[in-house]
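[retry 2/3] C4-dicarboxylate TRAP transporter substrate-binding protein: previous attempt timed out, resubmitting with same input.
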Amino acid sequence: MKTTFILKSTAIVFITMTSTASAENYNANHFFAERHSMVRGPYVDFAKRVAEETNGEVNFTVFSAGSLLPPAASLQGVRDGVAQVTYHAGTYTPSELPIANLVGDMAFYNTDPLVMAFASTEFGLTNPEQLAEWKANGVVYGGGYSTSEYFMQCNTSIQTIEDIKGKRLRMAGGAWSRFAEYVQAVPLSIPSSEMYTGLDAGSLDCAVAAADALDSFSLKDVVTHMNTLAIGNYYAGFEWGYNAAFWQSLSPENRRVLFNQMAYYLGQHRVEFDKDVEAAVQSAKEGGMIVVEADDTLKNALAAFVAADEAVLIANAKERGVTDPAAIIASFKALVDKWDVLLAKVDTKDVEALAALARSEIYDKIDEATYGLD
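[retry 2/3] C4-dicarboxylate TRAP transporter substrate-binding protein: success.
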């Protein structure tokens, strides 16, 4: 009830504001802080470049850190026009986005975040079932993303299967929570903004997240040990999802500008994200954090979980109304394998090379005159 009321109130304010504001001023929403790599490039710099390339016809005002929409409301907010473009973490809306969550839960199939960012983007822009799901939710999908690998960042040392039993782990839901249960840990699905408090107060033993959180969420102040077992990476939902009416109001030329800029920042954010991880880990180590490796019992447990979990993915998707989840999984795996090969041929730290590949293999194949208009 509270969330609905707040969202409607925000929408009323937004409608009132836009009645007197220029039609070329639009809202861009992200719930991470502005300094985060998924905001400062793909939203703050993106907005500046879009304004320049459209000669001022498309101007985004960027709202970060949940200042416009809380995380769970971003999908509804972009559908209703509170924001014209938003980031959305798919696990907040499993019932509305069962296909997006199905592929998002395949985070253990390939833990290379660059591969998953590009594969999920191509899937979101081209798969017919996924496109129908976006449309049913009033969203025009623009492009995806991926965090860096998730690691256990803890206030205790975890190296073995025995160490992890009974530990309270902040998880991103879905497959991550199932993995925690598989190794007899306790999964807690809490927002990233609450990781610090949980570790500091002792209600969490570990935050399982990308290691840039050591800096961006100040976890280095409360984390004593980090285990480098790669527990997937997060890419569910979308980095850019557009309000349908807004998208349809744009000229084809301006839609192409958005395509080109999303192609650039798809690669740029991955390069910057990994730089942030490297810097955050180094700073935390200098502050006394100990980096530990998982032993074979923990590595083998993760491998056994991954092998068994695909059947759970399929069953969950069917319960949410997905007709043929096995076919969708096969389609997504094919794209992941494709991008694993393509990205091995380029310098993965060269943003321009990554952007060129994103354009030639994905965005240049999308027709700006028709995409998102039906």
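[retry 2/3] C4-dicarboxylate TRAP transporter substrate-binding protein: The chain has two domains: 2-148+235-274+318-365, 150-233+280-310.
[retry 2/3] clearing retry counter.
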